[in-house]
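Final report, section 2: Outcomes. Of the targets proposed, Beta-lactamase is the one most frequently requested by collaborating groups, and we therefore present its record in full.
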Amino acid sequence: MQFSKSALILTSLFTLLSLPVWADTWVDDFAKEMKATAKKKKLPGLAFVMVAPNEPTRFEFYGKTEKSGTLIDKETVFRLASVSKTFTAVFMAKQVKEKKLTWQNSLQELLPDYKFDNYTDTPILLQHIIGQSTGFIPNAYDNLIEANYKLPRVLHHLEKLDSLCKPGICYTYQNTFFGVLEEYYRQQKTTFAEEITNSIITPLKMPTASVGRKALMASKKWAKPHAAIDKNKWVSVRVKNNYYKYSPAAGVNASAADMEIWLKAMLLEYPDIIDKSMVDSLIKTRVKTKREMYRREWKKQLKDAHYGLGWRIYNVDDIEIIYHGGWVQGYRADVAFSPELGVGYALLMNAESNAINELTATFWKKQIEAHQSDALVGVD
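The predicted structure is given below as tokens.
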């Protein structure tokens, strides 16, 4: 018996629609590859989250909170490190929407007691902090964060910087400048942690998310940080407080359960809290990030790379991937989503392993290949 091309296509579509949820073998293959990588590199633990249209959330876990600890699960809390900047960006967008701040607020307006207007004829604005385009040498005075200098002292050092370009023109990644927001809310007789919790974390009903070192360590279950002492050999280390003093840059803690909600929020499933106009303002391309184009894991597929407000924007095989990574002693974290595909991804590790770079790139490569393959099924 011979079948027409149309009949074969209909048969293929029927087969696809009849498959059980998460029948895409690539997802299972990726999960196996991820766990095999974790085992090979002897990682202490990780948590993986994937959300997709009309599918239950996919969770995968590996390892323990520490050598003698409990198994990682969806309630295990990790440090997000610089992924915190995505939370800060959304919080700022909400503050702007509620007319409590504007993207055009200058540093001088936010902290009038400091002299941020001394070194440039173009004011540094809130959008330049969140958009990593202040114009100063990248990672300015991170060494002072590492040395645990007090925040006001570091801010006074920032007053004396020489710029590389005018604000808003070039990409210059920073952590210390986020201390402006920490200090701003302190001067408002509140805290950044309290404000972002009340504005974002609590309304989204994130079950275990928090801000700060004390909050992490007070969690019912949290993944202890691990640093490498040799190749594929990890040792538990204490949680440092230095970057937590810059919580808008690196102070948020979250579990896989929290990241499921965060990804769904970015994909506009909570429009009464985080709406399309807010997300659109954050993922608009603003400054080109040339160095990202040379990342080994992405190089073959990455066609363009920019920074928006609190998020990186990658063009991967003509699909826009909105992404951010985080790294602080003992932890790595990646979060990404595609508005076009409706897919979100997060990977949390309690180890400083570069394996996360390859795993994240592989996930999106397989996801985009699956999308392109599905699209071909509908071609006449």
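The CA atoms of residues 153 and 171 lie 25 Å apart.
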